[in-house]
Amino acid sequence: MVVSSRFTGFSSIFFTTLLSFFFLSSQQPVLDLLEQHSVYQVLDAVNPTIPWRSLFPDDLCSSSPHGVVCDYFTEPTINGTVLFQAETVHITELNFGYVSDSSPNPPCTPNSTISPLLFTSFKYLRKLFFYKCCTGTRVSVPEKVPASFGSSLEELVFIENPSLVGSLGGIIGNFTNLRRLVLIGNGVYGTIPDKVGGLVGLEEVTLSRNKLSGGVSLSFAKLKKLRILDLSQNLFAGNVPEGLGNLSLLLKLDLSYNGFCGKIPVSFGFLQSLEFLDLSFNRFGNFGVPLFLGQMSSLRQVSLSGNALGGQLPEIWENLEGILGIGFSGIGLVGTIPSSMGLHLKKLCYLGLDNNNLQGSVPEEFGVLEFLSEINLENNNLSGRVPFSSKFTSKVGAKLKLKGNPDLCIDDGLTTNGSLGQLKLCRAPDFPIAVLINNGVSSSSTLFLSSLLLSFVGVLIVLAQNW
H helices within 27-158, ranges in order? Predict the structure, then answer.
C-alpha cells in the first residue's frame, strides 16, 4: 500500500503538472500589465485628448490603436519545478503621427511630449516612429538614455519634430542592432559620435535638416552595409574623409547645404553602386568638375551646384548614358559646352548649367534629347542660334531657360513661350545660298554658280565701301 500510495502521489503531481503545462501552452498569451500601463502612459503623452483606456480597455495586443504593434516570443518559463518554453507577447513597434489615410497612426497634438516610460518599459521594441509630433512644446531627450533601452531597436525614425531637442549621442543611446537611423527636421544638435562606427548593421543614416556640426566622423568608413548616407542641411564643415569611398554598397550620398570644403574625395570614384550624389552648396573649390564621375556608370543624378569648382566641362560622358539629372549651376565653369553631352546622355531629363561663364553655341545635339524636360542655361555668355525646334520648345515650355545670354538668337516663327520671348531674332539664314539655287542643275554646276555669285557679292561690298 505504501508503494501504491507513493506511486499514486507521484502520478497525481506528474499529471497535474502536465495538465498545467498543456493549459498554459494552449492559452493565448496576453500583454504584461506593466507593459500595457506603459503604453497607455506613452499614448497619453502623445495625445491626452483621446480616452485611450476607454477606447481600448482590453489586452492591447488583441485590440490596439493602429501603430501599436505586438509580436510573439518563445521564452523559458518555470512553473513550479518544471522548466518549459512558453509563448509571450510584447510591444515591438510604436508609431505616432498621421502619415496617410492608409496608415492612420495615433494622432499627435501641438503639445505632444514623450513619456519617460518610453525609454524604460519596452525592451523588445524594434521600431520607434514619430512624425510631426513635437511641434510646439519643447521636448528634451534624456542626455543619457538607460542602457536597457534600444537593445532590440532596428529602426529609429523621427521626422518633422522641430521641438524635439537633444544631442545625437544621447538619442542613439546604446543601440547595437540598429538598421535605420532617420532623423529629419528635428532639433538634434552636436557632433556625430565615434560610437556610430560600432553600429555595423546600419543600412541607412539620414540626419538631414538638424543642427549637427563638426566634421564627418571617420567611423562611417566602418559601416560596410550602409546604402544611404544623408547629412544634408546641417552645420557640418571641414574636409570630407576619403574613407567614405570604401562604402561599396552606397546608393545615395547627400552632403548638400553644409560647409564642407577642400577637394571632393577622389575615392568617390570607387562608389560603383552610387545612383544619387548631391554635394551642392558647400565650399568645395578650385579643382574643377571631378573626372572620376566618368567612372560611375550607375549614376542617375549628380549635383555640384553652388560650389566654386571652376574649370571646363570635361569629356567624361561616354559611360554615363543612364544619367537623368545634372546640376552644375553656379560653379564657375568656363569654355564651351561639349557636344558629347548631347550625344551620349540620351536619357537626360534635367540639365542645369546656369550662372556660369560658358561661351560658344548651344550644341545642336541638345535639340534631339527626347526625354529632356528642363534645361537651364541662363546667365552665361552663350551665342549663336538656339538649336531647338518649335516642337521641342512647346514640350519643355517655361522650363527652357535661356535668358541672360544676350548673344543668343532664335529663328522667326519659333514658339516664344518662357524665356525664348526675351531673345532676339537671328538675322542670317540657316542655309547657304548654294542650297537655294538648285533648279535641276547638277551639284558641281550649283557649287560653281554659288561660288561665282558669292564672289560677285564680295566685289559689290568692296565697291560700296570704297565709294
Answer: 33-46, 52-55
Within 8 A by CB and 6+ apart from 95, the residues are: 66, 67, 68, 69, 103, 105, 106, 127, 129
- 47-102 tens-digit pLDDT: 999 999 999 999 999 998 989 999 999 876 666 665 657 789 999 999 999 777 77
Q: How many domains does the chain have?
A: 1
Measured between alpha carbons, how far is 40 from 33 in angstroms, rounded to an integer?
A: 11
Q: Which of 166, 71, 150, 154 is nearest to 114 (CA)?
A: 166
Would 163 be classed as within a structural domain?
A: no
Spatial CA neighbour of 157 closest among 206, 116, 203: 206
Grid cell listed for 423? 531673345
Whether residue 111 lies inside any domain: the answer is no
Cα–Cα dist 180/205, whole Å: 6
The DSSP secondary-structure symbol of 246 reads: G
Domain assignment present for 283: no
In a 13 Å sphere around the CA of 393, the CA atoms on its Cβ side amount to 18
% of the chain surpassing 70 pLDDT: 82
Gap between the Cα atoms of 268 and 310, Å rounded: 19
Cell of 197: 562606427
Among 236, 331, 342, smallest CA distance to 285 is for 331
